[in-house]
């Protein structure tokens, strides 16, 4: 009687051990990928590779917004005719006289409606080399994202974190990201419809 | 059938002796059941008749189990020799041309390489110098065959790296630039138009309905009333495809990439059946890429040239990601719908997405733990 009791006890313990050990995945001691990420990133020491060499042909500048610090492309050197005051030597109303050759004729503003925005919402008629915030403060052309973020606050938060926008170079540090105007034309920020880059004719044949 | 009629050697491993129940001593000398059927019908009971009829049509096969069917093959000595010679010829050819005094140094070297490549081990089990060895052989072999030099890497997984991917379904517009970039980067077969990535055009309000989705549309995008989402290999942390591979030709690397050793794969396609996401592709024919379009920046586990009859798939562009770059699809996406990064780096953008956006994965309940998340704005 005693002996069979002991056997049952041993079997019970064995069963429990098997139950506990089989509950976990075969190879890993983690139950889910989130557990694994949490556990393994506790002692994160950084990586030896860098993505710096993949954008060394682009002039970058470092910005810090909130708790995020990263690189964005410098803008002023990319604008074709910066500084603006090289042409804008006189006040606007004097440049707008009839008969004089027109500039910026190709810009049609398709950004919000005219009740909300016109040229001087962002451009400063008094100082063409700077942008202008809604309250009239100066914003540097290199930091034009500060202008966009006045209205597009959600996109700005996502961009800072990395959920909106596009990475430059690669995943490895240092982090570099496109700024708003690298993807969106500020005068016409919407993406156009277009044809897809490819069409798989073989799939059509295979699925017949 | 009598034993002296037997022209083959049978491994009699199971005790069951197969003796035909009906007599076959009809004198016609045939070993097949053909002459059984010629027996007068009226002498047989219904059961015997059935057996005789079965024997007549498919012969002894019906009584053999799988093992016997394979090993108890009727093979004449001549046939056996023919098959044996054929398989030996390949090896013999290599040996003869590498020891021959007449053949050129180049063809000798080629045979030497082919020989060593033929008998190398599984990449998964190789030491670093063995990996280097096979990579050097493959580069030399490509050089000898085409006269062109490739850069083939055997870079191992970086420490403290676990790759993860996020896909913004509110941003994808269905332009398929990612698909194009992927095909060019990864040297996929142009003839069969193989693609790792599929972009599904889904109807608004129908949710993720793959049955009604179109993954091969051709009209201006984004189309009214539709949204787009992409699928590819999700690099599961608990990958069912790895589990089923009978030869361990596919495995999960330390940095989370699920990779294939194309030289170890036997092409059984179990992994394709096991993958719940249609992440794997099979080479039904020899993959062809025009020489001028071949991406020469290659990795052994990534975009090096494949052969006929092996399985391949997205590797998060291992040749790019292990050197710090983003995969080609991420770089090509014009809408910024694709985010890639190191899940172990608390400051990475992928971690920010996972911690701050509402994310989900496909078929999460299967427990495959994909490292590919979807999110919305």
Contiguous runs where pLDDT drops below 50 for at least 5 residues of chain A = none
| Largest beta sheet: strand ordering of chain A | 1-2
The biggest beta sheet of chain A is recorded as:
2 strands, antiparallel
Query: How much strand content do the residues of chain A show?
Result: 5-15%
CA radius of gyration of chain B is 28 Å
Number of domains of chain B: 3
Low-confidence stretches of chain B: 18-41
Assembly level: heterodimer
Helical amount among residues of chain A, as a percent range?
A: 25-40%
What is the CA–CA distance across the termini of chain A?
Answer: 72 Å
The proportion of strand residues of chain B reads 5-15%
- The first-level CATH class of the largest domain in chain B is given as Alpha Beta
**Average residue pLDDT of chain A:** 89
Helix content of chain B: 25-40%
Keywords (chain B): 4Fe-4S, Iron, Iron-sulfur, Metal-binding
GO molecular function, one term (chain B): 4 iron, 4 sulfur cluster binding
Domain 4Fe-4S ferredoxin-type (chain B): 256-285
Biased composition (Polar residues) (chain B): 11-26
What do you see in this structure?
The complex is a heterodimer of chains A (208) and B (377). Chain A is α+β, with helices and mostly antiparallel strands and 208 residues long. Chain A has a domain at 51-96 and 109-190. In chain A, 29% of the residues lie in helices and 8% in strands. Chain A has 8 helices and 4 strands, in the order ααββααββαααα. Chain A has helices at 2-22, 33-40, 92-95, 119-122, 145-148, 153-161, 180-183, 201-206; strands at 60-65, 68-73, 131-132, 138-139. A two-stranded antiparallel sheet of chain A has the order 1-2. A two-stranded antiparallel sheet of chain A has the order 3-4. In chain A, a hairpin with a 5-residue loop joins strand 3 and strand 4 (138-139). Chain A is elongated, with a radius of gyration of 30 Å. Chain B has 377 residues and is of the alpha+beta class. Chain B folds into 3 domains: 3-71, no CATH class; 77-153, no CATH class; 164-375, Alpha-Beta Plaits (2-Layer Sandwich). In chain B, 29% of the residues lie in helices and 12% in strands. Chain B is built from 11 helices and 12 strands. A 4-stranded mixed sheet of chain B has the order 10-2-12-11. In chain B, a hairpin with a 5-residue loop joins strand 5 (250-252) and strand 6. In chain B, helix 3 (77-99) crosses helix 4 (105-118) and helix 4 crosses helix 5. The longest helix of chain B is centred in the first third of the chain and has 23 residues, at 77-99. The relative contact order of chain B is 0.13. Residues 18-41 of chain B have low confidence and may be disordered. The chains are: A alpha+beta (208), B alpha+beta (377). Chains A and B meet through helix 2, helix 6 and helix 8 of A and strand 2, helix 6, strand 10 and helix 11 of B. Chain A: This is Cytochrome C. Chain A: Pfam families: Paired_CXXCH_1. Chain A: Residues 111-155 form the Doubled CXXCH motif domain. Chain A: InterPro entries: Multihaem_cyt_sf, Paired_CXXCH_1.
């Amino acid at each position: 009687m005693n002996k069979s009791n002991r056997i049952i006890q041993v079997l019970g313990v064995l069963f429990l051990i098997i139950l506990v050990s089989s509950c976990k995945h075969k190879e890993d001691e983690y139950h889910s990928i989130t557990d694994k990420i949490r556990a393994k990133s506790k002692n994160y020491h950084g990586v030896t590779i860098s993505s710096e060499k993949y954008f060394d042909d682009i002039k970058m500048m470092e910005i810090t917004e909130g708790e995020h610090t990263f690189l964005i492309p410098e803008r002023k050197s990319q604008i074709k005719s910066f500084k603006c005051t090289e042409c804008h030597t006189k006040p606007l109303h004097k440049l707008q006289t009839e008969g004089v050759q027109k500039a910026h004729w190709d810009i049609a503003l398709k950004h919000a409606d005219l009740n909300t925005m016109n040229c001087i919402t962002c451009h400063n008629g008094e100082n063409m080399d700077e942008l202008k915030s809604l309250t009239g403060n100066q914003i540097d052309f290199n930091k034009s994202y500060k202008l966009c973020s006045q209205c597009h606050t959600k996109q700005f938060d996502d961009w800072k974190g990395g959920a909106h926008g596009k990475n430059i170079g690669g995943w490895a540090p240092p982090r570099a990201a496109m700024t708003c105007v690298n993807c969106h034309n500020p005068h016409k920020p919407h993406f156009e419809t277009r044809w897809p880059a490819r069409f798989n004719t073989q799939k059509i044949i295979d699925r017949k | 059938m009598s034993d002296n009629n037997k022209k083959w050697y049978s491994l009699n491993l199971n005790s069951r002796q197969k003796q035909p129940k009906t007599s076959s001593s009809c004198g016609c000398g045939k070993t097949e059941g053909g002459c059984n059927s010629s027996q007068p019908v009226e002498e047989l009971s219904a059961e015997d008749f059935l057996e005789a009829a079965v024997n007549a049509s498919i012969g002894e096969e019906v009584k053999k189990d799988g093992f016997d069917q394979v090993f108890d093959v009727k093979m004449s000595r001549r046939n056996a020799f023919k098959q044996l010679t054929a398989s030996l010829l390949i090896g013999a050819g290599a040996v003869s041309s590498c020891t021959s005094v007449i053949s050129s140094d180049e063809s000798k070297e080629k045979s030497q390489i082919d020989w060593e490549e033929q008998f190398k081990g599984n990449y998964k089990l190789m030491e670093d110098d063995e990996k280097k060895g096979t990579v050097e052989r493959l580069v030399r072999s490509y050089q000898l065959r085409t006269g062109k030099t490739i850069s083939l890497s055997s870079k191992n997984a970086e420490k403290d790296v676990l790759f993860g991917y996020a896909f913004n379904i509110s941003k994808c517009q269905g332009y398929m630039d990612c698909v194009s970039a992927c095909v060019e980067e990864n040297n996929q077969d142009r003839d069969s138009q193989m693609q790792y990535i599929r972009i599904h055009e889904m109807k608004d309000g129908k949710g993720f309905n793959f049955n009604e989705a179109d993954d091969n549309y051709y009209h201006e995008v984004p189309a009214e009333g539709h949204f787009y989402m992409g699928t590819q290999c999700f690099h599961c942390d608990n990958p069912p495809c790895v589990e089923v591979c009978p030869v361990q030709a596919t495995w999960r690397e330390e940095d989370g990439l699920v990779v294939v050793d194309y030289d170890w794969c036997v092409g059984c396609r179990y992994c394709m059946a096991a993958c719940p996401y249609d992440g794997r592709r099979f080479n039904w024919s020899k993959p062809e890429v025009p020489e001028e379009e071949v991406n020469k920046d290659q990795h052994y586990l990534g975009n090096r040239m494949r052969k006929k009859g092996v399985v391949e798939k997205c590797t998060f562009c291992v040749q790019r990601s292990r050197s710090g770059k983003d995969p080609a699809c991420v770089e090509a996406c014009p809408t910024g719908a694709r985010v890639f990064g190191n899940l172990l780096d608390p400051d990475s953008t992928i971690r920010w997405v996972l911690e701050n956006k509402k994310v989900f994965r496909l078929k999460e309940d299967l427990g495959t733990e994909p490292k590919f998340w979807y999110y919305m704005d």
